[in-house]
Amino acid sequence: MSRVLMIGAGGVATVAAFKIAQNADVFTEFMIASRRKEKCDAIVKAIEEKGILSPLTPNHSPLKIQTAQVDADDVEQLKALFSSYKPDLVINLALPYQDLTIMEACLACGCSYLDTANYEPKDEAHFEYSWQWAYRERFEQAGLTAILGCGFDPGVTSIYTAYAAKHHFKEIQYLDIVDCNAGDHHKAFATNFNPEINIREITQKGLYWEDGKWVETEPLEIHKSLTYPNIGPRDSYLLHHEEIESLVINYPTIRRARFWMTFGQQYLKHLEVIQNIGMSRIDEVVYEAELADTSLTAHLSPLTSNKVKVKIVPLQFLKAVLPNPQDLGENYEGETSIGCRIRGIGKDGKEHTYYVYNNCSHRAAYEETGMQGVSYTTGVPAMIGALMFCKGLWKKPGVHNVEEFDPDPFMDELNKQGLPWHEIHDGDLEL
User: Fold this and answer.
1) What's the CA gap between 46 and 27, in Å, rounded?
2) Which residues 6+ apart lie within 8 Å of 136 measured at CB?
3) DSSP secondary-structure letter at 154?
4) Can you tell me the distance from the alpha carbon of 428 to that of 407, in angstroms, rounded to the nearest whole number?
5) Ordered alpha helix ranges (H), 391-423
6) What is the distance between the alpha carbons of residues 312 and 308, in angstroms, rounded to a whole number?
7) Measured distance CA(20)–CA(343) in Å, rounded
8) Which residues neighbour 309 within 8 Å (Cβ) at sequence distance 6 or greater?
């Protein structure tokens, strides 16, 4: 028996909910909560329309799903919901801004915790694990488990690294995480997940680890063409990404660790314009707007202005007018390719290279869950992490990144749950 509560109702949460419903032999009770309950209800309806909630066998009860409204910025609201539902595990698929409030509520109510992205403050485009690692002692003392970064990157890429260290290497010396989206959604410009989080991430300065220290670069300064399986060469850009922060600690033999992501020239052109005209700003600006409802000022003097001054964050306004990532799947073609390219000293004492990766079809992801491949590659690992916890395989008091757990059962589930992985031994890493 296991009871899980998921916070969030976007594309990633939709995929995770579908996969939880497909694994009702482990997940017996499930709640979806978000700021807008109708979005949670829509996920349940989509699952019902696929027939997934029918009993798996004549003697097996279908998964029970409830929905609820909650403001994840409000610790007291979260505590009230957790105290009422009493989940074994809270799956945080909300915004990274809300990690700490959800962790606080979990501690108060005796719930374990899992997320896919580390905390970042709303008023600063900066993310690192220090805020969440500060909760280690409190989770240990409470006997609760917190699993950090259980998406694909971070998440699967960290587990790939742990698997390589366990089975193939005595020393991992060079690690390059490579993320290619070779899909086409037929939009002039759109982001594959929350536009606000996505644009904040890729407009930051780059950061990588080399020879025991962090090296900072200008945004998208370093780039090169890399060849991806079944896709071919794509321009790949060095970014700062959070999993490197924990991997270089847990694998101290790493001499250099970098993260690369592909971007097309059309995407980069739009991004440059967005930055140049100030639409990527995350500070508030004052805007004088006409009142849409003039009845609000009907009782005032005719000389009173029908305008009102409002504060808006340009990037949040941009998010409101860009395509919703949840709506991209229907016309999305192509696939993603994400993996780890590793060089180091093998178990035999000789130098080896190792490339482990997954390719995910946007079309296949949409046909199964109604969401595109980027949501799929994050939502499936989130479910598998919850599965690991509920089976008792990943249950250890404290706050842990995913590479601190046994990678083998997780790797087995990737093959079963729709994200099969492939290996290339002693090939050309291009890096």
Assistant:
1) 18
2) 398, 399
3) T
4) 25
5) 408-417
6) 12
7) 36
8) 286, 287, 288, 289
Instruction: With beta carbons less than 8 A apart as the criterion, state whether 153 and 401 touch.
Output: no
SS3 85: helix
Measured CA distances, 369 to 71, 158, 379, 405, 422 (Å): 26, 25, 10, 28, 23
Q: What's the CA dihedral at 118, 122, 125, 127 to 10 degrees?
A: -20
The residue to which tokens 């996505």 are assigned = 198
**CA–CA distance, 13 with 19 (Å, rounded to integer):** 10
Q: What is the DSSP letter of 25?
A: T
Residue type at position 261: M
Q: What is the dihedral of CA 284, 286, 290, 293, to 10 degrees?
A: 50
3-state secondary structure of 63: coil
Considering only CA atoms, which of 199, 216, 209, 202 is closest in space to residue 251? 209
- Look at phi and psi of residue 356 and say left if phi exceeds 0, alpha if psi is from -120 to 50, else beta: beta
Residues 6+ apart with CB under 8 A from 426: 352, 353, 354
pLDDT at 121: 77
Q: At which residue do the structure tokens 């500060």 appear?
A: 134
Residues pairing with 361 in the sheet: 335
Which portions of the chain are predicted below pLDDT 70? 1, 54-61, 123, 125-126, 186-188, 190-197, 282, 291-306, 324-327, 329
pLDDT value at residue 330: 76
- Dist CA 299 CA 207 (whole Å): 57
Structure confidence at residue 100 (pLDDT): 97
pLDDT of residue 90: 98
Q: For residues 40 and 50, is the Cβ–Cβ distance under 8 A?
A: no
Q: Do strands 422-425 and 351-361 pair parallel, antiparallel, or not at all (unpaired)?
A: antiparallel
pLDDT tens across 48-99, in order? 999 887 555 455 567 889 999 999 999 999 999 999 999 999 999 998 889 9
CA 6 to chain centre: 14
CA separation for the pair 346, 218 (Å, rounded): 34
**Omega before 154 within 30 of 0, i.e. cis:** yes
Q: Count other C-beta atoms under 10 Å from residue 417's C-beta.
A: 16
Three-state DSSP state, 293: coil
